[in-house]
């Protein structure tokens, strides 16, 4: 379980997170929604320690993440970045097996390659893609490789940052389905940030809406449509009129 | 009021410059700390050694060759004013080994390597590859900075040594072909008057310049701004900072080595 308590983060005068309180239950898929620039990515990076919060605590299984050993903490996570963030100087299989090839528990190359190919297969990529470089793949394939890399070391928690951004609707659907399948079969805790409502409905067990640096609404995805929060309703129906200013 | 504003205008860039020096010094200290603590990424080190050392050899070699030749012509022409044409071999050798080899070699490596390191790491930063490294339990300083800094510190002295030899050979070629020196006499004068420390000091300079080049490339790459413009600015700053620091360090080292 990940618990965020009163998390604040500002960049200069811009207070991005202004007291976020949120609990992500173990084994559930939480999707954070919100408009562009509302701090969804900052929130995710705060949990991972890529950005240091100005105030508040973030706890994993009740332990403050700043007090845990960094490598052990990060070893529990997998992450799919918005742009894939694949290492373009490495072949696809080396990207997928990166964590398996480095660190104290590094595997021999052939074994790491076999695992990478198996993970590539799991995300729908054939073994002949393993020796290509990321630049030789389409956007959808790069997302799949990023997904394979995120799951390669069998993490307990996976973060997905805008997993369908830049993809056509069919490929977005494929990625959403893959994420849902992987989250279910691995039994991981997942946190996804997106503003794509089709992703929300496909991936989420629970939804939280971030607006003006605060969680406006949180609850099961099944209750989202019936919720009365005007901010949430404007967002999920994509209306220009409502409490959220369309020009931000 | 006007005086206060003037002082504030004067103080702002001074404070900014001091803060920048502090940040670079902190980055250098962090690099040195990570240099001596595991894990070590030998594959990255090897790749950096190849990139920085082997692939810089043509540009350093060509620079040294033409510089050695030009130096021979200049010394011959200038020396003829006071009947000192005969010192061409000795001055070419000492000039190349002590000054021109390390400085021009360092500057050429700065142009080629600092720019490429800053652009590569800057692009990795803006495309979240550096963040990805962190999430994969890999420290970016250890994985990106340390191998490059270590490789440059070791490779540039070798490049300087090779450059010295090629530069001296350039002077010899010009000496025997255009200035009518006897080949054997030219070579004897070169070896007789060249001392170990002439070469050794240049190699030490090379190591310092290599450290500076890679450190500046990594520092500006890691602190690159967003987008293509940010990476472009980081690349430019890395080359400018590395070049200026090489010239400044050269002055300090020359003072240390040769004025006592």
Question: Can you describe what's shown?
Answer:
The complex is a heterodimer of chains A (248) and B (260). By secondary structure, chain A is α/β, with parallel strands linked by helices. Chain A has a single domain, classed as 3-Layer(aba) Sandwich (Rossmann fold). Helices cover 34% and strands 25% of the residues of chain A. Chain A has helices at 40-48, 70-75, 92-96, 98-101, 109-122, 139-151, 169-186, 197-203, 230-237, and strands at residues 2-11, 14-24, 29-33, 55-60, 63-64, 77-80, 157-161, 189-193, 206-211, 214-220. In chain A, the strands form two sheets. Chain A has a six-stranded mixed sheet with strand order 6-7-8-3-9-10, sandwiched between helices. A four-stranded antiparallel sheet of chain A has the order 2-1-4-5, covered by helices on one side. In chain A, strand 4 (55-60) and strand 5 form a beta hairpin. Chain A is globular and about 55 Å long. With 260 residues, chain B is mostly helical. Chain B has one domain (42-252). Chain B has helices at 2-35, 42-52, 57-79, 88-126, 129-135, 140-177, 183-193, 196-222, 227-258. In chain B, helix 4 (88-126) crosses helix 7 and helix 4 runs parallel beside helix 8. The mean pLDDT of chain B is 95. The chains are: A alpha/beta (248), B mainly alpha (260). Chain A binds chain B through residues 45, 48-50, 70-71, 74-75, 77-79, 81-83, 85-88, 98-99, 102-104, 149, and chain B through 39, 41, 124, 127-129, 131-132, 134-138.
